[in-house]
Every structure is written in C-alpha cells, then in structure tokens.
Amino acid sequence: MDKRIVISRKLPETIISPYVNTYMITMWPDEDKVMERSSLLKDVSKADALLSMLTDKIDKEVIDHAKQLRIIANMAVGYDNIDVDYAREKGIVVTNTPDILTETTADLTFLLVLATARKFVQANRYIIDGQWKNWSPFLWAGTDVHQKTIGIVGMGRIGEAVARRAKGFNMDILYHNRNRKDKAESELGAHYVSFDRLVEKADFVVSMTPLNEHTKDMFNEAVFKKMKKSAIFINTSRGGVVKEKDLYEALQNGEIAGAGLDVFKNEPINEKHPLLQLENVTALPHIGSATMETRTAMAQLSLENIDLVLKGKKPKTPVN
Ligand code: DGY
C-alpha cells in the first residue's frame, strides 16, 4: 500500500471498502461540510489521487500543492470547479461522472418544470400550514405543462433526456446547442432554433448548459426581457449561467411568471437571499442527481477511475 487516495467528503464504507486493502485512504470525516481548505492543501500534497466534490475549488493553488497527484476524479458531471487546463499542463488526469446521472437529473429537471408550473411547493405549504378552509375554483391554479413549448438550452445527454420526457407530455420541443442533434430532431421532433428565438417562443426555458466562459451570465436582463410574461425559467445546470439580480427583477416585475431553481451562484444559498423570498420561485438545494442509486454509482465510478489511473490504465470518463 504505497499509494494514497484523498476523498474530500465522507462516503459510505460500502463504497470505499473494495479499495481499503489496496490504497491508503484519507477521507474527510464530514458528510455535510466541505473539506477545509487547509486540510485539502495539506492532504493533496501527499496524494496520488483526489476524489473531489463540486463544492471543492480545485484551482492552481491546490494543483501546485500536489507533488505526485495523477488524477482528480470529480464526483459530478460538471467540472467547472476544477482548473482543468492547469491540471492538464501538470499531467494530471481529470475525470467526471457522465451518463450514469443523466436520467436522474432529467427526472429532477422535469419535476421542477411540473412543480413550478403547478405551484406544488406553495400548495403543499398551504395545506400543512392549516390554511385550506374551502375548495375554490382557482385555488392554487397554475399553468399547464402538456402541449406547451419547452426550450432546452444545452442539448447534451441530460438535455436530450429532458426532451424525451417533454415528448411524453406532447410538448413542442425547441433547443439551442453548439451543434445540431440529428437524433433529437428525428426521434423527438426537437427543432433547432437560435438562442433568441428560443427564449422568445418557449413557455418553459430550461437551462441545461455547462458553466464556462461562453455561458457565464447568459441569462441576464436582456434575455429575461425577451421571454414571454407567462414563461417559466428552470435551471438545473449551474447557477453561474444566470445573473441572479436580473432574474430576481424579472420575477419581481412580472417580466416572467416563475422560476424553478436547483442551482445557485453561491451554494449553499443564504435563506435570506432575495430570490428565496419570492412566491413564484421553487428552489431546491442542488439535488439534480441525488438518488441513492445514482449518487452511489457516481462515487463508485470516481473510485474506478482512480483505481484505473493508479494502475497505469486509461480512466473510463476523462474530461481532459
Ligand atoms: C453534477 O453532477 O454536475 C450535478 O450538478 C450534480 O447534481
């Protein structure tokens, strides 16, 4: 046992146990708290592999502390928390966990579409708070989802999985992406449109795009102004693609009708954040891929990638 794996969050023993006789494993003891920066810097200096979470900022400083690191295995499909270019420069492999979370994240995205449209959370709170005294014709009346137009920004694997769900609801599917998706067009009847046309036409504008220098703040005042007043904005990708102040104003001024958000610029978002004070916002704590099955598979894939690289083999899901 001469190789060391650092895991930045407490993971279940059952997931770690296949590796405990092969590697020295240093695991942050807390499931709920981010590994302290000082511990990360100290531990990474002796690590051959790092299993990181999307909450860990793996920047130049961390990478420079690493003396013998061969792989950073991020337990997420997104890897905007890692300076991938710098890792590449230093010969460190970066891996993510695509595919296995696609359907789970699409389920949650569609849940947000439905929950926001039908005011699910608000209506649930209303009954629990003992406010339901009478049935009335327009009590918590929301808006239909079936036969409406969904606009998917970022037609990757998860975007396509959302489109499949939308097809089941007889929705018109618009999408915008760097490149055309022939299969989504022929099998799902999805229509490729410009970003501007998508935001103008869609009843549900769904952000599925990764965060990078091209997508940062792409949903901003000008874009919200182009949307229908009845439009609902859904984001399950990354908070950084949205100018939250502009989203707040659009929601507050009735420029759009509602938002369903699983991700925020700064996570965890403070409960006093203006967005959370709005009645027309349905918010979740970044749980897109959070099912027992999928999170287990993500942790296992991260460890498999580490094991492969430490044995001198190719990882299953490299990003660089
Ligand atoms: C990811 O894996 O990037 C997701 O955001 C997790 O829910």
From TrEMBL:
Keywords of this entry: Oxidoreductase
Residues spanning the signal sequence: none
Chemical reaction(s) catalysed: glycolate + NADP(+) = glyoxylate + NADPH + H(+); (R)-glycerate + NADP(+) = 3-hydroxypyruvate + NADPH + H(+); (R)-glycerate + NAD(+) = 3-hydroxypyruvate + NADH + H(+)
One of the record's GO molecular function terms: glyoxylate reductase (NADPH) activity
Domain D-isomer specific 2-hydroxyacid dehydrogenase NAD-binding, chain residue ranges per copy: 111-288
Enzyme class: oxidoreductase
Domain of life: Bacteria
Keyword Oxidoreductase: yes
SUPFAM superfamilies xrefs: Formate/glycerate dehydrogenase catalytic domain-like, NAD(P)-binding Rossmann-fold domains
Record-listed E.C. numbers: 1.1.1.79, 1.1.1.81
Record-level GO cellular component terms: cytosol
The D-isomer specific 2-hydroxyacid dehydrogenase catalytic domain, residue ranges: 34-320
UniProt xrefs under Pfam families: 2-Hacid_dh, 2-Hacid_dh_C
Cross-referenced InterPro entries: D-isomer_2-hydroxyacid_DH, D-isomer_2_OHA_DH_cat_dom, D-isomer_DH_CS1, D-isomer_DH_NAD-bd, NAD(P)-bd_dom_sf
UniProt family annotation: Belongs to the D-isomer specific 2-hydroxyacid dehydrogenase family. GhrB subfamily.
Name under which the protein is recorded: Glyoxylate/hydroxypyruvate reductase B
Source organism phylogeny: Bacteria, Bacillati, Bacillota, Bacilli, Bacillales
